[in-house]
Amino acid sequence: MSLPVSVQIKKINEFSGHNGAIYGLVCDPNNNVFYSVAGDGWIVRWPISATECDGTLIGDSSTKLFCIAFGEASQLLVAGDINGFLYWIDPVENKILSKSSYHKGSIFDLCFISATKLVSVSADGYVCLWDIQSRLPVISFRISFHGLRCIKHDKLEKKLYIGASDNHIYILDDDTFDVINIIKNAHGSSVFSIENLTSELWVSGGRDALLKFWDKKDKMLKESISAHWYTINKIIALPEISAFATASRDKSLRIWDTATFELLKNVDLQKGGHLHSVNTLLWIPESHYLISAGDDRTIKLFSISHLG
């Protein structure tokens, strides 16, 4: 049996300036910056730095933003809002280029699956494939009469994993967009986050505060653990240290061992964490930085050291 890895986590910077809860983070590693979106409608650029902490406002949608994605090939930011609009943002010129309307509910998650293709999921139950050049939907269809909360692209398996408020997980072919599998009642309530852990394993988390580990080959449940007190909002893999992190409405972020599923670190307010719900996470592998953000309107940057 594998022994759990040992990690040390230390808060080294804090960023503030948003006037609303922060819901989305995304990184541009080539320019050593990351971006945030929040309930105040702002799109803000921040330095990935242990010392600098001043952000730059690059766009204001004037409406609550839930998610953001960055296309490295196109150098384009895309954000989704509470009313179903997509905002196309030029981070060089610091401006919103246009906005697109298709969804009839909040856009909860976005994912680039290629240099020219973006996928969105929404509270209206629709999944939509966008062409980023025309900024128009290419494929769209409803897979649930409940909201779709999260999406994860498995590039190697060429699949899309979508978590929904009907408690199911939908697995789609990333080329044809056919629904090839449905894991019914994967969780006891809404599925809020899905992440790839290894070539054989993926994990989901939801409103039931459970982490569920799934075998990629047979889609069977390997293990279920009670991971937090309340909703798990985000799961992110930390492959460089053989771990993964979770963010929760219970105001904590936690680090887990990928091989043993054991809890390695718990970061709450007393340990430099957040005052309210932790909504999202971002991993910077080059520097081993973990970035968190939440309802307290702050962004915190932690350094993680692998000791084992």
- Please bin the fraction of helical residues: under 10%
- Major β-sheet profile: 4 strands, antiparallel
CATH top level class name: Mainly Beta
Which structural class should the secondary elements be placed in? Answer: mainly beta
Q: Could you tell me the strand content as a percent range? A: over 45%
Oligomer: single chain
Distance separating the two termini: 15 Å
Shape: globular
Mean pLDDT: 94
Number of helices: 0
CATH superfamily annotation = YVTN repeat-like/Quinoprotein amine dehydrogenase
N-to-C series of helices and strands: EEEEEEEEEEEEEEEEEEEEEEEEEEEE
Strand order of the largest sheet: 1-28-27-26
Report the CATH topology name: Methylamine Dehydrogenase, Chain H
How would you characterize the overall build of this protein?
With 308 residues, the chain is an all-beta fold. Helices cover 0% and strands 57% of the residues. A 4-stranded antiparallel sheet has the order 1-28-27-26, with no helix packed on it. The protein has a 4-stranded antiparallel sheet with strand order 2-3-4-5, with no helix packed on it. A 4-stranded antiparallel sheet has the order 6-7-8-9, with no helix packed on it. Strand 8 (85-90) and strand 9 form a beta hairpin. The model has no long low-confidence stretch (mean pLDDT 94).
Tell me the layout of helices and strands:
Layout (H helix, E strand, L loop, with lengths): L6 E10 L5 E7 L4 E6 L3 E6 L8 E5 L4 E7 L4 E6 L3 E6 L4 E7 L5 E6 L4 E6 L3 E6 L4 E7 L5 E7 L4 E6 L4 E5 L5 E5 L7 E6 L4 E6 L3 E6 L5 E6 L5 E7 L4 E6 L4 E5 L5 E5 L10 E7 L4 E6 L3 E9 L2
Antiparallel strand pairs: 1-28, 2-3, 3-4, 4-5, 6-7, 7-8, 8-9, 10-11, 11-12, 12-13, 14-15, 15-16, 16-17, 18-19, 19-20, 20-21, 22-23, 23-24, 24-25, 26-27, 27-28
